[in-house]
């Protein structure tokens, strides 16, 4: 059977290219032009473009849109052993500087929102404003337990790292407004794609 996820990603990349969004490895300086800059930071599942595809397509004409893959997600990697939110923010700041971004609005979802707050703390002259959603950096234990009970998961690791197609579907439905109805095989293929990338 054909993995629908492996077909969709190249189509999505082609659509982004038509909208003027290009992937770029940050290895040299670049100029972001005169449009206001918006940086989208993804959560703990997927990569930047998959998370923000609709927002990117809506804003790409009027804004300089940046959609980085945070370290250890998508196509982003490092040999450095640090795994902190602060390290993510430091690397992001260096990458944006190399791209010529001097001021931006940072939009973060879940883990990405935590990185956005840390980036704003580290680089107040860079971050003009932060838009954060689905992030709980100051959640108490009782509120955390109540949220897990309502979501129907025993632990946060089972929410953030789904190990079945039904768990992934539930996670995406939780984090989306009117998530489209998709066949179960799409979620299965998405998990298979992530596992292959992780183990290769």
Automatic annotation (TrEMBL):
AB hydrolase-1 domain segment(s): 36-138
InterPro entries per UniProt: AB_hydrolase_1, AB_hydrolase_fold, Meta-cleavage_hydrolase
Domain of life per record: Eukaryota
PANTHER family to which the protein is assigned, alphabetical: AB HYDROLASE-1 DOMAIN-CONTAINING PROTEIN, SI:DKEY-122A22.2
Entry protein name: AB hydrolase-1 domain-containing protein
Taxonomic lineage: Eukaryota, Viridiplantae, Streptophyta, Embryophyta, Tracheophyta
